[in-house]
Design goal:
Blueprint: E1 2-6, H1 10-21, E2 25-29, H2 33-40, H3 51-57, E3 62-65, H4 68-74, E4 77-80, H5 95-107, E5 112-116, H6 124-135, E6 142-146, H7 156-161, E7 165-169, H8 173-182, E8 189-193, H9 195-226, H10 230-238, H11 259-272, H12 278-302, E9 309-313, H13 328-338, E10 342-346, H14 351-357, E11 363-365, H15 369-373, E12 378-381, H16 386-389, H17 393-399, E13 404-407, H18 414-419, E14 423-425
Bound molecules: nicotinamide-adenine-dinucleotide (NAD) and uridine-5'-diphosphate-glucuronic acid.
C-alpha cells in the first residue's frame, strides 16, 4: 500500500521503517528540515536500536520530504505521528495535530484514510473530522481512524512488529479493510473498536503502567522503614498472574516524553468530563517525591552538598535511548546545582542531548564512568544501562575520594558494594 507518515520522530520514524519492512511504500514527512536532510541520506536523526539498519535495508520503499502535499497526494493512508506535548496547565497541546489535519484536507486529491498514531485526548477523532470538513472544499471522501501506538523507546522496532495487540478504532467497513491490509503481516490480536474507545485505551494503559510504578515506589518507602526488600516484594507480587512482574521496578521514578505528559493529559480529560482523578494526582506526587529521595539519601551520607563533587551515571530516562525528555536526571542535576554541588556526568548515548539543556560550566561532561568517579565524593546512578552492569567496581572505588554510591535503579547488591568499600544505598532495600 502507499502510506504517508507525518512526523518522523521516535514513533513516526519507527512507523516509516516498520511499514516499509512490511512491504508498503512509505513517504515520511517532517517540518524539521534538518531531520529530512539526514533522512534523505538514510541517516537516522535519533538513536534507536535497529532503526539505522532498517532505514538502509528498506531504501527502495522509503522516501522523505518536508511537503505534506507531496506525501498526501502519493498515498492512500496517512498516519499522523506528530508530537502532542503538554501545555503549561498539563493538558495536551493539539496545535500540531490540527495544523497537519488542515494541511491534509487542503492537499487531498482522492479518498484517504487518516490515522491518528499520536497519543491524543479522547474525541480528537471528532475534531480531526471537523477540521477536515472545514478545509476539504471539494468534498473528497475520507475516513478517520484511531490507531494508538504502544511501542517503548529502546525497543521500538521489536514492539512495533511484535506487539501484544493492535488497537484500531474505525467507523466504516472500507477503512477497517484498509487497516487490516496494512497490518496483515503482523500476527498480533487486532482489536477493532469505535474511535473514542481506541483513543481512551491508550491513555488508560499508560496511566495504569505509571500507577504501577508509583505504587511500588511508595511500597519501597515502607520497605526501608521495616527492613523488607522491595525487589523481593515485586517478585512475590509479580508471580501472581493477575498482577504480573513488569513495571514493578522501584527507583527514581518514571520519566520520558510519555508517562508524565499522558498522566497529566488524562487528569485533564477526566476533569473535562466532570471528575477529579485524585488517584492519578497521587501517582504524579509520588513520582516527583521519588527524585527528591535520592538527594536526601546523598545528604544523609554527605551532610552539605555545597562545593562537593557529585557524579551522575545515566542521563537518559531509561536505557537504550538518547532521549532525555522529562528524565529524572534533569531534575536531579538541577537540584544538585542549587545545593552548590559540582556535577560530573556520563551516559553512553545521551551526552549530546544533555549539552543542549545544560551548557552549564558547573557540569563536567565525562568520557566514561571512571572519569566521573575521579575525586568524587558521591555518585548517583540514574539509568540502568548494560554498560554500568559491567563497571569495574574496584577501579571505581579506588578513584573516588569518598565512596558514597546511591543506586537509583537498584542495579547492584548492597552486600557486594559494602564488601568493596562503598557507602551504598539503594531504593527500598
Ligand atoms: P517526536 O517529538 O520525537 O516527533 C514528532 C515529530 O513531528 C518531530 O520530528 C516534529 O518535527 C514533527 N512535526 C511536528 N509538527 C509537524 C508538522 N506540522 N508537520 C510535520 N511534522 C511535524 O515525538 P514522538 O516521541 O515520536 O511522539 C509522537 C507522538 O506519539 C506523541 O503523541 C507521543 O505521545 C506518541 N507516542 C510516543 C511514544 C514514544 O515512545 N516516544 C510511544 C507511543 C506514542
Ligand atoms: C511507555 C510505554 O511503556 C509504552 O507502551 C508507550 O507506548 C509509551 O510510553 C508512550 O506512550 O509513549 P517509554 O516511555 O518508551 O514507553 O518507556 P517505559 O519502558 O515505559 O519506561 C518509562 C519510564 O518508567 C522510564 O523512566 C523507566 O525507567 C520507568 N520505569 C519503568 C520504572 O521506573 N519502573 C518500571 O518498573 C518500569
Amino acid at each position: 500500500m502507499k502510506v504517508c507518515v507525518i512526523g518522523t520522530g521516535y514513533v513516526g520514524l519507527t512507523t516509516c521503517c516498520c511499514l516499509a519492512e512490511l512491504g508498503h511504500s512509505v513517504t515520511g514527512v517532517d517540518s524539521n528540515k534538518e531531520k529530512i536532510r539526514k533522512l534523505k541520506n538514510y541517516i537516522s536523526p535519533i538513536y534507536e536500536p535497529g532503526i539505522q539498519e532498517l532505514l538502509k535495508k528498506n531504501k527502495k520503499r522509503l522516501r522523505f520530504t518536508t511537503s505534506i502535499k507531496e506525501g498526501v497526494r502519493k498515498s492512500d493512508v496517512i498516519f499522523i505521528a506528530v508530537n502532542t506535548p503538554p501545555r503549561e496547565d498539563g493538558s495536551a497541546d493539539m496545535r500540531y495535530v490540527e495544523d497537519v489535519s488542515k494541511k491534509i484536507a487542503l492537499s487531498m486529491n482522492s479518498y484517504k484514510v487518516i490515522v491518528e498514531k499520536s497519543t491524543v485526548p479522547v474525541e480528537t477523532g471528532k475534531w480531526i473530522k471537523r477540521v477536515m470538513n472545514l478545509y476539504n472544499k471539494k468534498n473528497i471522501p475520507f475516513d478517520v481512524v484511531s490507531n494508538p501506538e504502544f511501542l517503548r523507546e529502546g525497543r521500538a522496532i521489536e514492539d512495533f512488529l511484535n506487539p501484544d495487540r493492535i488497537v484500531i478504532g474505525v467507523e466504516t467497513e472500507r477503512a477497517r479493510k484498509i487497516m487490516e491490509d496494512i497490518y496483515k503481516k503482523i500476527k498480533a490480536k487486532k482489536l477493532f473498536t469505535n474511535i473514542e474507545t481506541a483513543e481512551l485505551i491508550k491513555h488508560a494503559s499508560n496511566s495504569f503502567l505509571a500507577m504501577k510504578i508509583s505504587y511500588i515506589n511508595f511500597i519501597s518507602r515502607i520497605c526501608e522503614k521495616v527492613g523488607a526488600d522491595v525487589k523481593d516484594v515485586s517478585t512475590g507480587m509479580g508471580l501472581d498472574k493477575r498482577i504480573g512482574r513488569e513495571f514493578l521496578d522501584a527507583g527514581v521514578g518514571f520519566g520520558g516524553s510519555c508517562f508524565p505528559k499522558d498522566v497529566s493529559a488524562f487528569i485533564w480529560i477526566a476533569k473535562k468530563c466532570g471528575f477529579d482523578f485524585t488517584l492519578l494526582k497521587e501517582v504524579q506526587k509520588i513520582n516527583i517525591e521519588q527524585r527528591e529521595i535520592v538527594i536526601e539519601k546523598l545528604k544523609k551520607s554527605l551532610w552539605n552538598l555545597n562545593g562537593k563533587k557529585i557524579g551522575i551515571l545515566g542521563i537518559s530516562f531509561k536505557p537504550n535511548t538518547d532521549d532525555i525528555r522529562e528524565a529524572p536526571s534533569i531534575y536531579i542535576i538541577k537540584r544538585l546545582l542549587e545545593e552548590g554541588a559540582k556535577v560530573s556526568c556520563y551516559d553512553p548515548k545521551a551526552m549530546e542531548n544533555l549539552k543542549k539543556v545544560y551548557s552549564h560550566t558547573k557540569i563536567k561532561y565525562c568520557k566514561n564512568v571512571y572519569e566521573v568517579g575521579e575525586d568524587s565524593e558521591g555518585i548517583i546512578l540514574l539509568t540502568e544501562w548494560d554498560e554500568f552492569k559491567k563497571i569495574d567496581l574496584k577501579k571505581l572505588r579506588k578513584v573516588m575520594r569518598v565512596p558514597v554510591f546511591i543506586d537509583g535503579r537498584n542495579l547492584f547488591e548492597r552486600r557486594k558494594m559494602e564488601e568493596l568499600g562503598f557507602i551504598y544505598d539503594g531504593i527500598g532495600r
